[in-house]
Amino acid sequence: MTAQLDQVFSALADPTRRAILAMLLEDDMAVTDVAEPFKVSLAAISKHLGVLSAAKLISQEKRGRVKWCKLDPDALRSASVWMQAFGQMEPVDLDAFEAFLSQELD
Amino acid sequence: MTAQLDQVFSALADPTRRAILAMLLEDDMAVTDVAEPFKVSLAAISKHLGVLSAAKLISQEKRGRVKWCKLDPDALRSASVWMQAFGQMEPVDLDAFEAFLSQELD
DNA sequence: TCGATATTCAACCAAGTGGTTGACGTTTCC
DNA sequence: GGAAACGTCAACCACTTGGTTGAATATCGA
Q1: Which of A66, A80, B11, B35 is the most exposed place for a label (fewest CB within 10 A)?
Q2: Is the pLDDT of residue B15 over 60?
Q3: Is the pLDDT of residue A41 over 50?
Q4: How many CA atoms lie within 13 A of B12 on its CB side?
């Protein structure tokens, strides 16, 4: 359990990974499309997605040659919790949550 | 903003630091007393406290030769939230928590 | 003043992280 | 079949992290 928390928090500690989560809030995406807005390599993004997946913040499903990434619903709940913690004290509001996350996209 | 989040999440990613926060939820403590239950060295705990302090999750005040560590009131709220959310620690008594908060804000 | 207590600092080490590049296995489509 | 697209793997590199030990600093108490 402690190890799971370690994974979740260290996954959230990286701005690229938080940006990825923000993108996935919009819609499910293929790995290549996730990587597109970033300046780092596809392999780097693939690793980030592996970290998010290990932390169960996202799930990945391969259909054909495309691997789709989607937010894990439970993770969304956890994410809303930490959003509440830092800043907005209003009860969890997904629109506000999305806006908060979007601020992080440079 | 992003850098601050980086600091907070990576601070929370370490189980020793989360345990320290849980201890400080009970009461303010001196560095030596914080270190007592852990098997790592005092210097290691001192570093952990530095990380928590940099993330503004705690504040430290030196009185005499003793340096007191206390949860940052804002951080206290967040700490209670994630502790409950992830169910790692026993649930926080929110009434006692509020009382503690107002006492702290004299 | 002297010794004990409280805490940090400095140097070091092993392991982990985020990044790269290039090769590799699949799947799609003409 | 063969080229292109999708994604991962393996090896490597620079940097960070959590830990150690030992010396240093500062304050207290007798």
Answers
A1: A66
A2: yes
A3: yes
A4: 30
The better pLDDT of the pair B7, A106 is held by: B7
B42: nt with nearest C1' to CA? C7
B91 close contact with A: CB closer than 8 A:
no
The 3-state DSSP class for residue B62 equals strand
Share of chain A above pLDDT 70, in %: 66
How many domains does the structure of chain A reveal?
1
What is the mean predicted confidence (pLDDT) over B57-70?
95
Phi and psi based region of residue A60 (left: phi greater than 0; alpha: psi -120 to 50; beta: remaining) = beta
- Give Cα B80 distance to the centre of its chain: 11
Contacts of residue B85 in chain A, CB cutoff 8 Å?
A: 77-78, 81-82
Mean pLDDT confidence for A37-48: 97
Measured between its terminal Cα atoms, the distance across chain B in Å is 28
Expressed in percent and rounded to 5, the helix, strand and coil fractions of chain A are: 60, 15, 25
Chain B residues whose CB is inside 8 A of the A14 CB are: 6
pLDDT at B64: 94
CATH number at residue A31: 1.10.10.10
